[in-house]
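Question:
Write out your own:
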Amino acid sequence: MALLITDECINCDVCEPECPNGAISRGEEIYEIDPNLCTECVGHHDKAQCVEVCPVDCIISDPDHKESKDDLMAKYRALTG
């Protein structure tokens, strides 16, 4: 699954630089994750780095973008060429 930042986000700016795919950006009110770019760090790290650094635990699996580890790896390969 791609990840989703909930409205509990405090805009601390910690997650954005940790994303190896550039999937996180500042939205109008809170940070947002582009599901087309999010691989949950599959291919880069063992764990999703944004989840690891988030001080308020507001990053969850996005129920609207369900993907298997194989799907995430295929997306990683497509993104990294």
